[in-house]
Design brief:
heterodimer, A: 438 residues, alpha/beta, Ubiquitin-like (UB roll), Rossmann fold, 3 domains, 6-stranded mixed beta sheet, 4-stranded antiparallel beta sheet, globular, B: 326 residues, mainly alpha, Ammonium transporter fold, two-stranded antiparallel ribbon, binds iron/sulfur cluster
């Protein structure tokens, strides 16, 4: 019997999913959007439009010749106001196309294709054309992930519905509200990969979603797909941990999931694939949880390119004195210092008041070992932190620093409030930089 | 968008655990044994405890001032605004608990000062010491004033009738003490070591709170029991007599001076257990807990370097991970 439910280590932060019972609402149509030309891992896009051009919603406005890249589309109909350097919510500066709405909701769609008769190649081409990237946050172009290198035999697809990060509920709502689209998207993925075994992993704090997904899988009569309840524990949704939990397989250190025959996709990516394949809609909007210290937390269906500020305003604005605005949840979110537009991989905008934003005072490490027990990978965060501080990067490699998944569990639990994952991330960057320099 | 936003690396939430809450919990866990000691050995025991704690706190304060680690203004001093000295209270208390109740108070004071100054502050303060400070203090007193350190009083008599400890009786005269007396603490010995039940209550509290790892006391006490049994001794007597419970729950579990990994803690416990039995059966002293832990403290850096958890996705190697460039 496989051990289906849990993994060693991990933590139980307060889940704060206050928007779990709120249906996804359509956000107000923005007056203008900024479509970043680099929303994914890989090569940035080149603009296909110029200032003054009229565009429709769904029209492709940026693309690249590289394989590892994904096109971007206008999310509203209107006029191109300019192309300039913009700050992205992942902290880099990239080119962005500013589009002002004309109030008309003209939409440019692609033809729907029937995955039953379409070839694998056609579906892949469609996924690329629709601009789909990993919507779970990693933003890796999906058509690339679904084209494993020659010689890698894929036998299992896992759909990640764990949503283990506190505060987020957009995937949860998606599974409740559009379970059939998720399942059909998953089937398209399985068809592309020619795989006959699929698992859908959902944390057991979303019992209603587990039930809903099971009912749909049963109705579809697809015996190949199994819904697996997972113990609620952070970071259950990290790819390596999810695969270990469901299949008891481990991705070798430095390797990828395709090395062990598995491809993991997020539920919202599956839903986007459904839209692109069955309905011909490119990726121009997505569900985003706007939560935390806003007056009215919501799950919103948001056009890509809408500003964070506008969405926070739509939720009633800040409650209390503003402290932090995060792209993402409290465990992995990236703090913003300026207004930025929504990109494809954003699942959550979390607002924290000044109290919650305080950075705790650091004390001495007492060697209590709590961080080691919390690490899902089996690393020794305390040793890594000390070695990074001494800049002994070679010893860090010996302590497997590169296997860290940056989940932050170690920092979360440390009674001495030592910024462990922060140090580790810095150490990894240094090591990778010196590697690239050689 | 507000003008001033705070930017920091994730995670943006932290658990509410802090060193201070853990230290307070340890002090709470020591209350049953402390109360028991005062009940059994009278007001003298309380004096020893208070002297040890004050001396330890004062020493740390002076040492930190000297090392410039603590900036305190006259104003702070006048208003008694000192940083919470919880760690050093534990050191003072633990030292008192393993001293004989009738020890001269000046000796106790010197012991505590020595423990804090040389075993803790000289290494760089909290988190940097190798040996358990309280045990260093005890070992120092043992070496300096062996007679005072081995003069024991009868419990509940309160008038300094000297007698031998259960381990002394067993070693020198081959007299066994009833289990019940050992469990309740109605025997002679150090202030806090005699009542196994009081220590167990505190230990279980800390384990339940997950502040200490059960692996250490279990492997330590378990090793003593098994080894005593194998060598034809009474295992129950050996685990209840002497300072084993005090050492196993409160000293072998000290974060700083014992291994950091679970596997390492088991090695520590087993090693300390073996040393206790060897000292008790072969060595000159009737009791070996103090030295067993100090000896294993010395091995802790080595254990921590070589015993590491199994890393995800890395091929299972042997129990000991050899580090390539050491
Ligand atoms: S060391 Fe890395 S993988 Fe381990 S808990 Fe810390 S952040 Fe997570
Ligand atoms: S949790 Fe913090 S204090 Fe404890 S060992 Fe890890 S780094 Fe040190």
């Amino acid at each position: 019997m496989l051990k289906l439910n849990s993994f060693r280590g991990g933590i139980h932060p307060p889940d704060s999913k206050i928007t779990a019972s709120k249906a996804i609402e359509k956000a107000k149509l923005p007056a203008s959007v900024i479509i970043l030309l680099h929303q994914h891992v890989g090569a940035p896009c080149k603009p296909l439009v110029k200032e003054g051009d009229e565009v429709k919603a769904g029209q492709k406005i940026g693309d690249s010749d590289s394989f590892v890249s994904a096109p971007v589309h206008s999310s509203i109909s209107g006029v191109v106001k300019g192309i300039s350097t913009q700050l992205s919510p992942i902290g880099s500066e990239v080119q962005g196309i500013i589009i002002e709405s004309d109030g008309k909701e003209e939409m440019e769609m692609m033809d729907a294709i029937d995955p039953a008769t379409a070839t694998k190649r056609e579906i892949l081409a469609r996924i690329r054309e629709a601009g789909i990237v990993g919507l779970g946050g990693e933003a890796f172009p999906t058509h690339v992930k679904l084209s494993p290198p020659e010689g890698k035999e894929i036998d299992t697809v896992i759909l990640n519905g764990s949503e283990c990060e506190p505060c987020m509920t957009s995937d949860h709502r998606l599974m409740l509200e559009q379970p059939d689209k998720v399942v059909n998207g998953m089937k398209a993925i399985m068809k592309v990969l020619e795989v006959d075994r699929g698992f859908m992993g959902i944390e057991d704090n979303k019992a209603d979603a587990i039930e809903r997904m099971r009912a749909v899988v049963e109705k579809e009569g697809d015996g190949r797909i199994k819904v697996v309840p997972l113990k609620t524990k952070y970071p259950q949704g990290a790819e390596r941990i999810l695969i270990k939990t469901i299949l008891n397989r481990e991705i070798p250190s430095g390797g990828y999931s395709c090395d062990i025959g598995v491809i993991v996709q997020n539920v919202s990516t599956a839903k986007a694939i459904y839209d692109a394949v069955y309905e011909g809609i490119p990726l121009i909007e997505r569900a985003v949880t706007v939560t935390g210290d806003v007056k009215e937390p919501k799950n919103l269906l948001v056009r890509i390119g809408t500003s964070f500020h506008e969405l926070i305003e739509e939720c009633g604005g800040f409650r209390g004195e503003e402290g932090k605005i995060l792209n993402g949840g409290p465990m992995r979110g990236i703090a913003q210092y300026k207004d930025v537009p929504v990109i494809k991989s954003i699942r959550c905008i979390l607002v924290l008041d000044i109290e919650k934003s305080r950075i705790p005072e650091e004390r001495e490490c007492t060697s209590c070992g709590t961080c080691i027990e919390a690490c899902p990978i089996g690393l020794m965060p305390t040793a890594l932190g000390k070695l990074v501080r001494k800049k002994r990067f070679e010893d860090c490699t010996d302590y497997h620093i590169l296997d860290c998944v940056e989940c932050g569990s170690c920092t979360y639990v440390c009674p001495s409030k030592i910024p462990l994952v922060q140090l580790i991330t810095y150490g990894k960057e240094e090591i990778n930089r010196s590697k690239n320099a050689c | 968008m507000p003008a001033e936003l705070i930017v920091s690396h994730s995670p943006h939430v932290r658990s509410d655990a802090s060193i201070d809450t853990i230290f307070y919990a340890v002090i709470i866990a020591l209350i049953p044994a402390t109360v028991c000691g005062i009940y059994l050995f009278g007001i003298r025991a309380l004096y020893v405890i208070l002297v040890c704690i004050s001396s330890a706190m004062l020493t740390e304060y002076v040492a930190m001032r000297l090392m410039g680690e603590m900036e305190l203004s006259i104003d702070d001093l006048l208003h008694l605004r000192l940083p919470p000295p919880t760690g050093v209270i534990i050191t003072g208390l633990l030292l008192a608990l393993c001293l004989p109740p009738n020890i001269p108070l000046w000796m106790a004071a010197i012991g505590a000062a020595f423990a804090v100054a040389f075993a803790k502050c000289a290494f760089g303060g909290l988190g940097h010491n190798i040996f358990n400070p309280a045990l260093v203090g005890r070992a120092f007193l043992m070496a300096s004033w062996p007679v005072a350190m081995t003069t024991w009083t009868k419990p509940l008599t309160y008038d300094a009738i000297t007698t031998a400890t259960p381990l002394g009786l067993w070693k020198m005269q081959d007299i066994a003490t009833p289990y019940m007396d050992l469990a309740l603490g109605n025997v002679s010995g150090s202030i806090g070591e005699t009542s196994a039940i009081a220590l167990l209550i505190g230990g279980i509290y800390l384990i339940a709170k997950r502040y200490i790892d059960w692996r250490t006391p279990l492997s330590y006490i378990g090793t003593v029991a098994v080894l005593a049994f194998v060598l034809g001794q009474d295992p129950i007597f050996h685990i209840l007599a002497g300072g084993l419970f005090l050492g196993a729950f409160f000293m072998a579990t000290d974060y700083v001076t014992t291994p950091i990994t679970r596997k390492g803690r088991i090695i520590f416990g087993v090693g300390a257990g073996i040393i206790v039995v060897v000292i008790r059966l072969i060595g000159g002293y009737p009791e070996g807990v103090c030295f067993s832990i100090l000896l294993m403290n010395a091995f802790t850096p080595l254990i921590d370097r070589h015993v590491r958890p199994q890393v995800y996705g890395v091929k299972r190697k042997s129990f000991f991970v050899s580090s390539a460039n050491k």
